[in-house]
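Changelog-adjacent note: as of this version, every example in the card shows the full chain rather than a window. The one below runs 289 residues end to end.
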Amino acid sequence: MPTTHAMLDWPLHEIVAHNRIDDPRKQMHDPEVARRMGFAGALVPGTVVYAYMLRPLVARFGGDWFVPQVCELALLKPVYEGQRLRVQVRGDDPAQPQALSVQALDEAGTCLATLQVSVPRPMPAPTPQRGQPPAAPATERPPVSWERIVIGQPFARARWTPDAALQRAFCAEADETLPVFLDRPRAPLHPGLIVRRANDVLVHHFQAELGIHVASRIVRHRAPVVGETVEVAAVPLEKWRRKSHEYVKFHVTLLGTDAAGRAHAMAHADPAVAVELFHTMIYRPRGAP
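Full-length structure tokens:
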């Protein structure tokens, strides 16, 4: 990888945040519900904030961005509809141009989210999903509760084939126009869409309409592509209570299942593993009924 990227200044990237979610399973993006829960308005999805933070990075590196890497995303404060964000990027190591620190700031300079990117060599081996055998597919979604989230009990696995229409829809939602995502077949799947699929694990299995994305550790062993079928495996790792919120952390793994996945797999101890996410959410916020 050329080191010249790290030597260049990173221009400030500014964007107006928008909440375009219209999904009854995700009510924290409804302004009335969010205000009842104590927020100033509808929350912009964390996956969209992540996409905003990635924009200058992918614009700089293009297809070279989609190497194996580790991203640590922390959503520190709410981002609201219509809020103007400033995305600041910093890279200190010319020998590792993709080792970057990113902040999303509001107009007052308050940090709302951080993203730390590293490219370990070698990459960490995939983390085995330990615990009991996966559950059978559910026939209904019960209300989420402390008792129903069983640590170490994997959810039923699901196949997912994100197509070009889904990619275009997410890019439109995040005001993303980069050709690397939109102007070629078998484009790399937008990383924000991958995190959204991890986020959706909760609502696919429970009635959890008030869930709030808090943080994600994203370990990309290889980049899934549009049209590839992957298997989504998820298991709760931890749950805890803090300040009357109830939290859960999931280990979510995207496993390649088709010829496209095998063709794009990189040499690894387990080439079937495309992406791992250690995904933290508030599944029951303070004051939830």
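Structural remarks: Residues 46-61 form the longest helix (16 residues).
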